[in-house]
Amino acid sequence: NIMGLDMYAFSFEPSKLKDPNAQINLDFVREDGEEHPAIELAYWRKFNHLHGWMERLYEKKGGEDVFNCKTVRLTEEDLDQLEADWKAGKLTATEGFFFGSDEWYPEYDEEIAKFLMDARAQLAEGKGVFYDSWW
After folding, report:
1. Is the pLDDT at 77 greater than 50, yes or no?
2. Which of 24, 61, 67, 109 is the most exposed place for a label (fewest CB within 10 A)?
């Protein structure tokens, strides 16, 4: 397995947080169970343009750690901003040792469109949506 930037989007039941009193927008740990499993909405590999956007969102929301194996929760407003920035060409390449090429591949557009649609559907069902990554 070659090291690289692995990126995930999940939805989950907000009531299933290990620490319900924790700030749930960042760095939270979900508790998977048979009753309320997390659902994988998307997986990307070395899509560093999107990762950089998520990292900036994490920092904007108060995240202070290195953005690796850290989660950030996405609200409807966040998804709207992501869509606007994507359509305006504001998802720029983010450099990192394992982050891959700065090239924008055509499938990225399809993947973002599908993710936005799926994430909004999960939010409409009352689920929480979050982004997680590992490099």
Report:
1. yes
2. 109
Closest to 2 measured CA to CA, from 130, 107, 97 = 97
- Which residues, in sequence order, are bridge partners of residue 102? none
User: What number is the average pLDDT over the span 97-106?
Assistant: 88
Task: Provide the edge-to-edge strand list for the sheet that holds 72-74.
Answer: 39-45, 6-12, 128-134, 72-74
Which residue is listed with tokens 């909405």? 41
CB-based contact 10:24 (threshold 8 Å)? no
Fill in the amino acid letter for 84.
A
Amino acid (1-letter code) at residue 100: G
What is the DSSP-derived secondary structure letter of residue 7?
E
18-27, 80-89, 90-99, 106-115: lowest mean pLDDT where?
18-27
In the numeric block, which tokens belong to residue 52?
A: 């950089």
Cα–Cα distance, 132 to 27 (Å, whole number): 9
**Confidence at residue 21, expressed as pLDDT on a 0 to 100 scale:** 46
pTM confidence score: 0.86
d(CA 98, CA 15): 34
* CA–CA distance, 59 with 125 (Å, rounded to integer): 27
